[in-house]
Design goal:
It is a single chain. By secondary structure, the protein is of the alpha+beta class. The protein has 4 domains: about 90 residues, Glucose permease domain IIB (Gyrase A, domain 2); about 130 residues, no CATH class; about 170 residues, no CATH class; about 150 residues, Glucose Permease (Domain IIA) (Distorted Sandwich), CATH 2.70.70.10. It has 20 helices and 20 strands. Strands 15-11-12-13-17-9-8-19 form an 8-stranded antiparallel β-sheet, with no helix packed on it. Helix 14 packs antiparallel against helix 17. The radius of gyration is 28 Å and the shape is globular. The two termini are about 25 Å apart.
C-alpha cells in the first residue's frame, strides 16, 4: 500500500495542515483534533485507500486504519513536516467528561504495546509450565518472569510518560515524580509499616506499584507547577531552579495527598466490581458483552482501563473487560460475515467480509464503523450475541490473564493458572458467533436494507436562487480545490434553500448551515450555506427537515437570513458538492438561475 499517497489524501480531506491541531494514534486509529471538525466529509474520507472506518469520539476525528496505523501515522507526520503542536486556546471546547476520557486515552495508549508484549510473555510462560516444558522454579523461568512483570510494576512511570504528552509538560520530570512512588526506600517503609511524617504531616503508606490514577494526578499537578514556575522564576535561574521546584513541589504534594486520593478512587471502584462479582460472577461479563459496542463508540471503554489493568497487575487476572469484550468482538465478526453473505451490493460484500475476519482476530473497528453500526438491527444483533456469549463467560468464571485485545489472534491472553480457562474462552467465542450469526441472519439484516447503487444520469438544478459560479472561484481551498468533491457554487439572492433532488436527508448539521442528501440512485451531495458560517452556531438558520426525512424535489430544506449573514461579515456563497464517487459531471451552465433551472448533469 502507498501510505504517502494516502497520507496526502487524508491531510487534504481533514482540511489541510492548518485545520489540524493534534495528531496521535492508538493500536488501530489515527486520532485527529481539528479546528473545525465539520470540514471532513466522512463518505469522502472512507474512500481513501487504507481507511477502514471513521469515528467522531471524545472531541477527536478518528480514522480507522487497522494494525498498519503506525505506518500511516509516520507518513502523515512526514507530509506535515513533523509532529503538530498547537496552542490550547485554538482547541474546540469539550465537556469535562470528554476531557477526562481524552486524558486517560492519551496516557494509556502509548503503554499498550509494552503491556501487551509483557502480558503475552506471561501467558506463554504459564502455557509452558502447564505443558511441563518449563519449571516455574528454573532460573530461565524466573528471569523471563521478572522481565514480563517489569512493565506492570513500573506502570506509574510509563503512565506518566503518556500523561505528560497529553498535558504538554516535561516528560522526563513527570516520570521522575512518578518514580518516587515506587522508590525502593518508600516501598520498604510500606512493607515494614514504619510510620513516616513530612514536616509533621503523616504520610499514607501505600504500595503504588502497578497503579495508574496516582501518576495521572501527579502529572496533572505538575503541568500547573511547571507553568507557574516558568512565570515566576527569573530567566537566568530557570535552568537550575525550575526542575528543582517542579520535582520537589509536585512529588511532595503527590505523596502527601494526590497519590492516596488516587489509591482511594481505585479501591472504591475495585470494591464495587468485587461486590458485583460476589453477588453474581456472571453480571459484569454479561453487561460488558452487551454494551461493549456502545462503550467503544463513545470512547468510554478507556475509562475502565485503569481498573482492569490494575487488577491484572495486582491479582494476575481480570474479569471487568476481557471476557465480555471477547464475546462482543466475535459477535462483530459474525454479524459482518452475515452481511457479506446476504448483501447484493458487491462493494458492501467486500467491506463486510474483510471486516468480519478482522473482527474475529480481535480488531473490530472496521466491522463496527464500516458495517454494524450503520443499521440499528445489525447493531442490536451484535449486542444480543455479545450478551449471550458474555453470560457464558461470566457463569464459567472466564478471566483474562494479561493486557491485549480479545479475539482469535490474542487467545494467549486467556492462558494462565487454570488450564480450563482457555477452553471456556473458546466456548465463549463459539456461543457468541453462533448466536449472533443466527440472530443477524434471521432478523438483523435483510439484503434490501442496503440498496444496490444504480447507474444513471441525474440533472441537478440550483437549490437556491442566485448566480451559479465554478467551485474554483470559491474563497475557500477546501471547496475551490475540490478536496470534498466536484460540484458548483451559488451566490444566493434570497434565503430559501430547497431540495435539488428526490431522496433522503442523511445529515442536518447541528448548526443548520449545511445538509447532506442522498438521491434515489445513490448520489450523495452536501449543501453548505456560506463560508465559516459554522461560527454563527445556528443563528440565522431554520432547518425545515431532519435527518432521516424523505424529501421531494423542490421541497424547502432550510430558511436562512441572507441579509443578516452578510451584515455579520460572512460570505453567503452556497456550495453544492457531490461527496459520493461519480463517473462524470457534464453540461455545466453558469450565470443567474432560479431553482427550476438545471446547472449540470451527473453520470453515476
Amino acid at each position: 500500500m502507498d501510505y504517502t499517497s494516502s497520507a496526502k489524501e487524508i491531510i487534504a480531506a481533514v482540511g489541510g495542515k492548518e485545520n489540524i491541531l493534534e495528531l496521535s494514534h492508538c493500536a488501530t486509529r489515527l486520532r485527529f483534533v481539528l479546528k473545525d471538525s465539520q470540514i471532513p466529509n466522512d463518505q469522502q474520507v472512507e474512500k481513501i485507500q487504507g481507511v477502514k472506518g471513521l469515528s467522531r469520539t471524545s472531541g477527536q476525528y478518528q480514522i480507522i486504519i487497522g494494525t498498519e496505523v503506525p505506518k500511516a501515522y509516520q507518513a502523515i507526520n512526514h507530509e506535515l513536516g513533523g509532529e503538530i503542536h498547537s496552542d490550547d486556546s485554538e482547541r474546540p471546547k469539550e465537556g469535562w467528561f470528554n476531557q477526562v476520557l481524552g486524558i486517560i486515552s492519551g496516557a494509556i495508549t502509548p503503554m499498550i504495546p509494552a503491556l501487551t508484549g509483557a502480558g503475552l510473555l506471561k501467558a506463554f510462560l504459564a502455557l509452558f509450565v502447564n505443558l511441563k516444558w518449563m519449571s516455574n522454579t528454573s532460573d530461565t523461568y524466573v528471569m523471563l518472569s521478572f522481565i514480563a512483570d517489569a512493565a506492570f510494576y513500573f506502570m506509574p512511570v510509563i503512565v506518566a510518560y503518556g500523561a505528560a504528552k497529553k498535558f504538554k509538560t516535561n516528560q522526563v520530570l513527570a516520570m521522575v515524580v512518578a518514580a518516587t512512588l515506587i522508590h525502593p526506600t518508600f516501598t520498604t517503609l510500606v512493607g515494614e509499616g514504619t510510620s513516616l511524617t513530612f514536616l509533621g504531616i503523616p504520610v499514607t503508606l501505600v504500595s503504588y506499584g502497578s497503579t495508574i490514577i496516582p501518576a495521572l494526578l501527579s502529572t496533572w499537578l505538575m503541568s500547573y507547577v511547571e507553568k507557574i514556575s516558568e512565570k515566576i522564576i527569573p530567566s537566568f535561574l530557570k535552568y537550575f531552579l525550575k526542575p528543582l521546584v517542579v520535582i520537589a513541589v509536585t512529588a511532595t504534594i503527590t505523596i502527601l495527598a494526590l497519590a492516596p486520593l488516587g489509591n482511594l478512587i481505585g479501591n472504591v471502584v475495585a470494591g464495587l466490581i468485587e461486590g458485583l462479582n460476589a453477588y453474581g460472577s456472571w453480571i459484569v461479563p454479561t453487561v460488558i458483552g452487551g454494551v461493549f459496542p456502545l462503550l467503544v463508540m463513545t470512547g468510554m471503554h478507556w475509562s475502565l482501563a485503569p481498573f482492569w489493568l490494575g487488577s491484572i497487575a495486582n491479582t494476575g487476572s481480570e474479569t471487568l473487560l476481557g471476557p465480555g469484550s471477547l464475546a462482543s468482538n466475535i459477535a462483530q465478526g459474525a454479524a459482518s460475515l452475515v452481511v457479506a453473505i446476504k448483501t447484493k451490493d458487491p462493494e458492501q460484500k467486500s467491506i463486510a467480509s474483510s471486516a468480519g475476519f478482522t473482527a474475529l482476530l480481535g480488531i473490530t473497528e472496521p466491522a463496527m464503523f464500516g458495517v454494524t453500526i450503520k443499521q440499528k438491527s445489525i447493531l442490536f444483533s451484535v449486542m444480543a450475541g455479545g450478551l449471550i456469549g458474555g453470560a457464558y463467560a461470566g457463569f464459567s468464571g472466564l478471566v483474562r490473564y494479561s493486557a491485549g485485545g480479545a479475539g482469535i489472534a490474542l487467545l494467549p491472553v486467556f492462558i494462565g493458572e487454570n488450564p480450563m480457562n482457555l477452553i471456556h474462552a473458546l466456548i465463549t467465542m463459539l456461543i457468541a458467533f453462533v448466536s449472533t450469526f443466527i440472530i443477524t441472519y434471521v432478523w438483523g439484516f435483510k439484503p434490501e436494507d442496503i440498496p444496490v447503487k444504480k447507474a444513471g444520469k441525474v440533472t441537478i438544478p440550483t437549490p437556491v436562487n442566485g448566480e451559479i459560479i465554478d467551485l474554483s472561484a470559491v474563497n475557500d481551498e477546501v471547496f475551490s480545490k475540490k478536496m470534498m468533491g466536484e460540484g458548483f457554487a451559488v451566490i444566493p439572492t434570497d434565503g430559501h434553500l430547497i431540495s435539488p433532488i428526490e431522496g433522503k436527508v442523511t445529515m442536518v448539521f447541528d448548526t443548520k448551515h449545511a445538509i447532506g442528501l442522498t438521491c434515489e440512485n445513490g448520489l450523495e451531495l452536501l449543501i453548505h450555506i456560506g463560508l465559516d458560517t459554522i461560527n454563527l452556531k445556528g443563528d440565522m438558520f431554520d432547518a425545515l427537515v431532519k435527518t432521516g426525512d424523505t424529501v421531494k424535489k423542490g421541497q424547502p430544506l432550510i430558511d436562512f437570513n441572507l441579509a443578516g449573514i452578510i451584515d455579520a461579515g460572512y460570505d453567503p456563497t452556497t456550495m453544492v458538492v457531490f461527496t459520493s464517487s461519480v463517473n462524470e459531471v457534464t453540461d455545466f451552465s453558469f450565470g443567474k438561475k432560479n431553482t427550476a433551472d438545471t446547472v449540470l448533469s451527473v453520470e453515476m
